[in-house]
Specification:
The chain is mainly α and 71 residues long. The protein has one domain. It is 65% helix and 0% strand. It contains 3 helices and no strands. The longest helix has 30 residues. It comes from Aliiroseovarius zhejiangensis. InterPro entries: YjiS-like. Pfam families: YjiS-like. This is YjiS-like domain-containing protein.
Length: 71
């Protein structure tokens, strides 16, 4: 019987660790930009439009955070 095995090596060098940190930072910056854009777009809506969505002006940041970060 034959088995196929895939060996994944963990990043060990400083360059690998820096690349992972940079990629993580880049993802966080993209999330932050998406959060700011969501807040900006919701803030541009009128009170009536927000009410149609079931939102109040005070909950814009909470809704944006939940939409982008999931918490």
């Amino acid at each position: 019987m034959t088995y196929a095995t895939e060996i994944l090596s963990a990043p060990v060098g400083i360059a690998d660790r820096l690349a992972l940190r940079f990629a993580d930072w880049k993802d966080k910056m993209a999330q932050r930009a998406q959060y700011r854009e969501t807040v900006r777009e919701l803030s541009a809506l009128s009170d009536r439009e927000l009410n149609d969505l079931g939102l109040g002006r005070a909950s814009i940041r909470t809704v944006a955070r939940m939409a982008v970060y999931g918490n």
